[in-house]
Specification:
The protein folds into two domains: 126 residues, Rossmann fold, CATH 3.40.50; 183 residues, Methylesterase CheB, C-terminal domain (Rossmann fold, 3-Layer(aba) Sandwich), CATH 3.40.50. The chain contains twelve helices and 14 strands. By secondary structure, it is α/β, with parallel strands linked by helices. The longest helix is centred in the middle third of the chain and has 14 residues.
Length: 344
């Protein structure tokens, strides 16, 4: 079996040694080089042509975020951010994911154990297999402004790679967009910063969902994560509900939980499933489709990880496959298609 070639970038020799030890114990991985600065990392990329890179945020002369952005412009490749700042500085983690990083892992403090590092090798292998979507310049223009009569609620679910995908979708939404709920696999602290970033970036109002909040045009509600799934209550008024419970399909918040809760409203739903590892959302999407919802999935060619959409398609739950740059406009078009009068 060919091993994935890894470049470790960190200004701490001790941390580089720890990461190397962990990676070299995995038969799927081979550490081909280390670097302590951005310039060393650039030279190592050119010389060793690694399959995947671990990258620290805090480095001398040039930060890891700035190096990541330059790397994605000139030599795009899979990158996993490994830093103390990815936890306490959620804004930095979201910026890294938006700039093309596959995932962010918290670096343990010296002398302390880290649960996150227990998954480090699996995360790096997953990243090495991912398709890299080169971040593109964001258009600040929503879809053409005209009077639109949206009849459907939009439900969107994603995981690995979906931070960038959701930004590309929601930047196309007008200020008075369809009521929209989003479940994204991400730690609670990251979701707070993700919602705040989107609210500054797009025309609709974006916030973390609150229990009992009524669904309204122009509002995008994001699952807050932590102990809760984001679900829908159909009666007496269509509302978002936060459901405390165990993981569903391996996750909390879960896309399947959100999709399945909306089955009673299916004729008034357009459900989208985005890039991500695993199968969360696939069963719920099939249930929605069978109950009368319109369903859409991000195309294989534009997914970072074609896991969740692939399984949804294999089960028969996907009606439309769309490239990510066109997915926002297509969701809006489908949201205008009426079937009943539950949600006007």
């Amino acid at each position: 079996m060919n091993k994935y070639r890894v470049l470790i970038v960190d200004d701490s020799p001790t941390m580089r040694r720890l990461i190397r030890t962990l990676l070299e114990n995995d038969p799927r991985l081979e550490v081909v080089a280390e670097a302590g600065t951005a310039s060393e990392a650039r030279d190592a990329v050119n010389q060793h042509k690694p399959d995947v890179m671990t990258l620290d945020v805090e480095m001398p002369n040039m930060s890891g975020i700035e190096f990541l952005k330059r790397l994605m412009r000139h030599r795009p490749m899979p990158v996993v951010m490994v830093s103390t700042l990815t936890k306490k500085g959620g804004e930095i983690a979201i910026e890294a994911l938006s700039s093309g990083a596959i995932d962010c892992i918290e670096k343990p403090k010296l002398g302390q154990k880290s649960d996150a590092f227990a998954n480090l090798t699996d995360t790096i292998v997953m990243a090495a297999r991912a398709r890299i979507q080169i971040p593109t310049a964001r258009s600040n223009k929503p879809a053409a402004v005209r009077q639109r009569d949206f009849r459907r609620i939009c439900l969107l679910g994603g995981s690995t790679g979906a931070v960038d995908a959701l930004e590309k979708i929601l930047i196309r939404f007008p200020k008075e967009c369809p009521p929209t709920l989003v479940t994204q696999h991400m730690p609670k602290a990251f979701l707070v910063n993700f919602a705040a970033r989107l609210n500054k970036l797009v025309s609709p109002h974006v916030s973390l969902a609150e229990h009992g909040e009524e669904l309204k045009a122009g509002h995008v509600l994001i699952a807050p994560g932590g102990d809760f799934h984001l679900n829908i209550q159909a009666k007496p008024v269509v509302r978002a509900t936060l459901h405390a419970g165990p993981n569903v399909s391996g996750h909390r918040p879960s896309v399947d939980s959100m999709f399945k809760s909306a089955v009673d409203l299916a004729p008034n739903i357009v459900a989208g499933i985005l890039t991500g590892m695993g199968r969360d959302g696939a069963e719920g999407m099939l249930m929605l489709k069978n109950a009368g919802a319109l369903t859409i999935a991000q195309s294989k060619e534009t997914c970072v990880v074609f896991g969740m959409p692939q399984v949804a398609g294999q089960l028969g739950g996907v009606e439309h496959w769309v490239d990510i740059d066109e997915l926002g406009d297509e969701l809006l078009r489908l949201a205008e298609v009426p079937r009943t009068e539950i949600c006007k």
